[in-house]
Amino acid sequence: MFYRPEDGHGLPHNPFNAIVSPRPIGWISSRGSEGDNLAPYSFFNAVAYVPPQVMFSSTAAKDSLANIRETRVFAVNIVEFAARDAMNASSAAAARGVDEFALAGVDKAECSTIPCPRVADAPATLECRMTQIVQLPGKANFLVLGEVTGIHMRDDCVVDGRFDVTRFAPLARLGYKDYAVVRELFELARPGEA
């Protein structure tokens, strides 16, 4: 099968998200003049090591985007399998000013380097200062880039000096209503590496 996106795919559901998968979920927390916000974004990833930088993309002018424009900070909370229901609950289309931490029953803590809430018991949280927001082609597509200014790692996830994802089983987004969980790993050394 081949199709051009502008012509449509002819399938019952758009396959694009299923093709580009699995995708990590950035559980973005932010604070604005109307309160705290927590929302999952599956268009999320790390984009640079030094300085460490991340990006996420919003496909609408959501509360997270408004808060980040206002304060220029946000936190990325890593989602573990055990938090799947809370993460899903925080994706509800709540009215502006509704605190999704409370809505989803998620405990919050304050960040250390930025004035922003974070998920208290997340396996890891990246505290970020927004570097730019880019409007992408389309009706309401926005790319948010941020520099990581602080990193929280839950103590039980650090084993022998490594952040061990098998300790919390990260959740990943696939297409449609599908998710995946990482429970096993394997290593590959690059050619020439020991």
TrEMBL record:
Residues forming the Flavin reductase like domain are 20-165
Q: Which InterPro entries match?
A: Flavin_Rdtase-like_dom, Split_barrel_FMN-bd
One GO MF term attached to the UniProt entry: oxidoreductase activity, acting on the CH-NH group of donors, NAD or NADP as acceptor
Q: Where is the signal peptide?
A: none
**Pfam families (UniProt xref):** Flavin_Reduct
Source taxon at top rank: Bacteria
The protein in question is named Flavin reductase like domain-containing protein
